[in-house]
Design brief:
Largest sheet of chain A: 5 strands, parallel
Strand order of the largest sheet of chain A: 2-1-3-4-5
Distance between the termini of chain B: 45 Å
Structural class of chain A: alpha/beta
Order of helices and strands of chain B: HHHHHHHHHHHHHHHHHEEHEEEE
Number of helices of chain B: 18
Number of helices of chain A: 5
Largest sheet of chain B: 6 strands, mixed
Radius of gyration of chain A: 13 Å
Shape of chain B: globular
Oligomer: heterodimer
Number of strands of chain A: 5
Helix content of chain B: 40-55%
Number of strands of chain B: 6
């Protein structure tokens, strides 16, 4: 799995820094983007193997970004791990309807993030 | 003062309380008891003692034991126990013996009543907080900020704690981040606590200008004696009002008081009070007496001195977007503080048919459902110009239904707001209720 590429869309700089650290240490390349606006274009530009996406972002919500991505045939199956401060059932339902691969509520642990990233990438690499 | 004396001197207050609970006007009770309304008024304000035959007569009319009027604690206790039984939905035969239970086991009865009161109070807090959490954007943003900061701290701290060898530059950077985030967390938590603590009981928590205005009007029981004078100056009544914490709140309150003063000039207190005594809270009869429109009568009723009203009443005014502009609550009919109200309210039915008065008997779902007559009308605000859309406001007067044992007729089921409404099979439901999730 070394060398796989993760894009992190999150507006909290210290979360970006911490996730970048734990993922790069495991051998992943990490790009980040801190705004809802331009997020879809960032995905198209960097073409990641996995997307970590916050829900509440300045400019556009993570839900909208996810819906737009799923509407594009090339990102229909892109693994998306969604991070949110809202863990209510209806938010999960909304994320599932939008096509999320995994849903994680803040505050999360590094172990959980790592396990989710490994798991999603492993699923994606299966034929 | 001896306990016996205290009990005796409060008999009048208990008569008033029971009369209001029965939905009786003072004039009706006085007539049935064969005394003048003014004499009953003196009794109810504990200025005349009452006993003997008159006490028995009044107790009979009110459908209670005379002892309930002279020994208030027991009467109140019995009422609370009955409410507890009704809320629990039990159908046990012993409920008929509630009074006996309260007399034989006063200690246990008080424990049960206290637990019931506590439960009701906690449910109100849950309703308010849930309402805020769902619809209050400031609270949602504060919680997001708090949880995002907590996530950053947790992630950074675990890197420092669990990573054996870490580059000095990364370590220093994480220490700086931790320091920065822990300060931010402290500040966000403090700000959130201040926001939630604005009112200690959460039932009157404020945060918007409209909420300030609600608190201001509530503190004055919706009546401003100074505005009954011909030379009333509404602006003076809002000066120094501690409830009005922003310019926006003062402006909204001043506009409301101006409208109250205008209504008071058009429908002066003394003749309106006399008409009210003649007709009761019948808006059409009152509007006919004063040759005015129904919305003015609705507003005037809501701004009358409490002792001039024949019973409790509530009033809600909204605009065509459904935003609540005025709320005078009435016990038993829940008005959500945030977010949208139940779309089945008569208030919104009236918006579908402007200018047409609509009367509906409703029951609001909840712990102890009560029935109300809701009288509503939608009316254009100001003068509508040619080719302009009318600016509609809808008015709903809420009158508790007096339980007489007679058939109630068609009773429409309504809620407060979806979030706290237990009715699962409602065609108007917008979102799931927390009451269906284990509350």
């Amino acid at each position: 799995m070394t060398g796989r590429h993760v894009l992190l869309i999150e507006d909290e700089p210290n979360i970006i820094e911490a996730i970048r650290f734990i993922l790069t240490r495991e051998g992943w390349k990490v790009d980040s983007h801190a705004h809802g606006t331009g997020a879809v274009e960032m995905v198209q530009k960097t073409d990641p193997d996995l997307l970590i996406l916050d829900v509440m972002l300045p400019g556009r919500s993570g839900m909208e970004i996810l819906r737009d991505l799923r509407a594009l045939p090339e990102y229909e199956n892109l693994p998306v791990l969604m991070l949110t401060a809202r863990g209510q059932m209806r938010d999960r339902d909304m994320a599932e309807r939008a096509g999320v691969s995994r849903f994680m509520t803040k505050p999360f642990s590094n172990t959980e993030v790592l396990a989710a990233v490994r798991d999603l990438l492993a699923q994606a690499s299966r034929p | 003062m001896s306990p016996a004396m205290t009990r005796d001197t409060l008999t009048g207050s208990r008569i008033r309380e029971r009369r209001l609970m029965a939905g009786l006007r003072q004039a009706d009770l006085a007539r049935d008891a064969g005394i003048s309304a003014s004499y009953l008024n003196l009794i109810e304000h504990n200025r005349r003692r009452i006993g003997g035959k008159l006490l028995v007569t009044i107790a009979t009319i009110l459908g209670v034991e005379p002892a309930m009027l002279t020994e208030g604690a027991t009467a109140t206790l019995v009422a609370t126990l009955r409410a507890a039984a009704a809320d629990a939905g039990t159908d046990a035969a012993e409920i008929a013996r509630t009074e006996e239970f309260a007399r034989r086991f006063p200690g246990w009865a008080e424990v049960l009543a206290a637990a019931h009161r506590r439960l009701a109070s906690l449910e109100r807090v849950i309703e308010t907080l849930s309402d805020r959490l769902t619809h209050d954007p400031q609270l949602a943003a504060s919680l997001h900020e708090l949880l995002s900061t907590a996530a950053a701290i947790r992630s950074t701290a675990s890197i420092l704690a669990e990573t054996g060898e870490i580059d000095a530059e990364w370590r220093d950077r994480f220490h700086r981040n931790l320091n920065q985030d822990s300060r931010r967390l402290a500040e966000s938590s403090k700000a959130l606590v201040t926001y939630l603590d604005e009112s200690p009981d959460a039932g009157t928590a404020r945060g918007t200008p409209q909420e300030d205005v609600d608190a201001f009007l509530g503190a004055h029981e919706y009546h401003f004696p100074e505005l009954e004078q011909a030379d009333a100056d509404p602006a003076r009544s809002t000066q120094d009002a501690s409830e009005l914490t922003t310019d926006a709140a003062r402006q909204i309150a001043a506009a409301m008081l101006q409208r109250i003063a205008d209504d008071a000039r058009a429908l002066p207190l003394a003749p309106f009070r006399a008409a009210l005594a003649r007709h009761g809270p019948d808006p059409v009869a009152l509007a006919q007496d004063f040759s005015c429109e129904l919305p003015m009568v609705f507003r005037r009723l809501a701004a009358m001195p409490p002792e001039a009203l024949p019973g409790q009443l509530g009033l809600v005014i909204c605009d065509a977007a459904g935003s609540i502009l005025f709320r005078r609550p009435v016990a038993g009919f829940a008005l959500p503080r945030f977010g949208a109200c139940c779309p089945l309210w008569t208030l919104f039915s009236a918006l579908c048919r402007p200018l047409l008065p609509i009367r509906r008997r409703v029951e609001q779902a909840g712990r102890a459902p009560s029935r109300f007559d809701c009288l509503a009308i939608a009316w254009p605000e100001g003068v509508t110009d040619f080719d302009a859309d009318p600016l509609l406001r809808s008015y709903m007067l809420i009158l508790p239904v007096r339980e007489t044992g007679e058939p109630l007729g068609d009773v429409k089921q309504v809620g407060s707001s979806c979030r706290i409404c237990p009715r699962t099979d409602c065609r108007a439901r917008r979102e799931p209720s927390i009451l269906g999730e284990g509350f």
